[in-house]
Specification:
This protein is α+β, with helices and mostly antiparallel strands. It folds into three domains: 13-172, no CATH class; 215-298, Helix Hairpins (Orthogonal Bundle), CATH 1.10.287; 307-447, Heat Shock Protein 90, CATH 3.30.565.10. Helix content is 52%, strand content 18%. It contains ten helices and 14 strands. The chain has helices at 8-55, 74-78, 150-186, 188-198, 215-263, 269-301, 304-307, 313-330, 349-365, 405-417; strands spanning 57-58, 61-62, 86-92, 97-101, 114-120, 125-133, 142-149, 309-311, 334-338, 345-347, 372-379, 383-390, 421-425, 440-447. A hairpin with a 4-residue loop joins strand 3 (86-92) and strand 4. The radius of gyration is 53 Å and the shape is rod-shaped.
Length: 455
């Protein structure tokens, strides 16, 4: 992940917090506006309540309820939503009622002051009261109590609470909508990547383009492109294998068909025996070609990194030469091995041995009797190699159907999966110390792993 690149997490967080900030600011604005409006309504209701009390007062005494008609416009003033119906009682120091107004039943007289909750009348109606004397100590002359119905107060409280809570009712859906839009916009790069992956055409060898700048996508895009490249390489190997099968089997199969047709005709015993012998040889060669093609396909699928191990090239060369010694003697060849001990290389021993066997078999099959064939090992500062050299030019006899090509393709594929190199070299580059004049040399090179610490 590129620490300096754009981050999808940061991108999504910016959009989500931006949406929340916008909703929060709107909610705060509505809340402030609602609070100011409710304060205005409470003030207006208080003014209406006080004015209603004063209209019931004359000469410092409250008029009895219904003693006089309501002034013009009083009904309209009474209709204010937040106007409270207050009841007022005034006593003297002896507890006599001097005056009172309102719907509250007269409460019992007491000397106390302050707030209290009272239940008055036969129905035990609940009232909230506040009482106070006009002076302290002996100077007292009047006690005033103001009462408000608890039910009316609760109705007013619920009305105010509804007005304040109303913005909260739409806050959740608005937040959900805003967050949904913000997350959708924040995840747009992910949707674009998903669309690109869906539109990816593996058959056309297309890869994801570098238009996804977010750091979280770098590993994903790289992994997808690697998978596409591996898929294309596998498809190419399959096509190549199909071409090789068609090319390499065409000749032996045609020969088998001709020989089978010839055997159906009149032949002498000697000709029939010769045809059967040739038929057997061609069938064996076809089987060998198929076996080599299968080996070629398997080497294409080897995951070397998962099964690599140290390979001793000199020991491997000695073992292969020992196994082919009998075949070389029967074909009239001189087979040997030379070289010093080499640093171990990292690879797949079975594949390296397969490549060396192909080189030795080609040298034994495609050179005349009396040819010297030598497996040589050597190394430089960074490379270790195996090479097979021979002293004879190719014989004039009919060559097998692979004609060196298929065997060398197998060796090239082994070199490829080992990140090595397979190539013909000039004979004078041989590592043998003898005076033998080599005519042909093929070398398979491998990188020597660096010691721990890279020194």
């Amino acid at each position: 992940m590129n620490p300096g690149g754009s981050s999808l997490t940061r991108h999504l967080l910016v959009w989500a917090l931006g949406a929340l900030l916008l909703v929060w600011a709107g909610f705060m604005a509505v809340g402030v506006q609602t609070g100011l409006h409710e304060a205005d309504e409470l003030t207006d209701g208080h003014l209406a309540s006080v004015s209603a009390l004063l209209l019931h007062q004359q000469g410092g005494v409250f008029l009895s309820n219904g003693a006089r008609p309501a002034p013009e416009g009083y009904a309209e003033l009474k209709s204010h939503d937040y106007q409270q119906s207050l009841s007022v009682v005034v006593w003297d120091t002896a507890g006599r009622v001097l005056t009172h107004t309102g719907a509250a039943v007269l409460p019992p007289f007491s000397q106390s002051e302050g707030f209290a909750d009272l239940e008055l009348g036969p129905q035990a109606e609940r009232w909230r009261s506040f009482a106070r004397w006009d002076a302290e100590g002996p100077a007292r002359s009047r006690r005033v109590m103001v009462l408000l119905s608890v039910d009316e107060r609760d109705d007013l409280a619920w009305d105010i609470a509804e007005q304040v809570a109303l913005p909260g009712l739409w806050l959740l859906p608005v937040v959900a909508l805003a967050l949904g839009l913000a997350i959708r916009r924040g995840l747009r790069p992910l949707h674009l990547l998903s669309a690109d992956v869906h539109a990816l055409d593996v058959a056309q060898a297309s890869t994801l383009q570098a238009r996804h700048p977010h750091a979280e996508f770098e590993a994903v895009v790289a992994a997808i492109n690697i998978l596409v490249e591996r898929q294309q390489a596998a498809l190419q190997r399959e096509r190549s294998l199909a071409d090789e099968v068609a090319h390499e089997l065409r000749t032996p199969l045609a020969s088998l068909a001709l020989l089978a047709r010839a055997l159906q005709g009149p032949l002498s015993p000697a000709e029939r025996a010769q045809s059967l012998q040739q038929l057997e040889a061609d069938a064996l060669r076809a089987g060998e070609v198929v076996n080599q093609l299968l080996v070629l396909a398997r080497t294409s699928r080897v995951e070397l990194a998962e099964s690599a191990e140290p390979v001793d090239l000199l020991a491997l060369a000695q073992r292969v030469v020992a196994e082919y010694a009998q075949s070389a003697w029967q074909s009239g060849h001189v087979l040997s091995v030379s070289g010093d001990a080499l640093p171990a290389v990292s690879g797949h021993p079975v594949l390296v041995e397969l490549a060396l066997r192909n080189l030795v078999e080609n040298a034994l099959r495609h050179t005349p009797r009396g040819t010297e064939v030598e497996v040589q090992t050597g190394h430089s500062a960074a490379l270790a190699w195996l090479q097979v050299c021979d002293t004879g030019a190719a014989s004039g006899q009919a060559k097998p159907v692979d004609a060196l090509g298929l065997g060398h393709k197998i060796v090239s594929r082994v070199a490829e999966v080992h990140a090595g190199r397979f190539e013909p070299i000039a004979p004078e580059n041989g590592v043998s110390g003898s005076q033998t004049h080599w005519q042909t040399c093929y070398r398979l090179s491998f990188a020597i792993p660096l010691p721990v610490g890279g020194r």
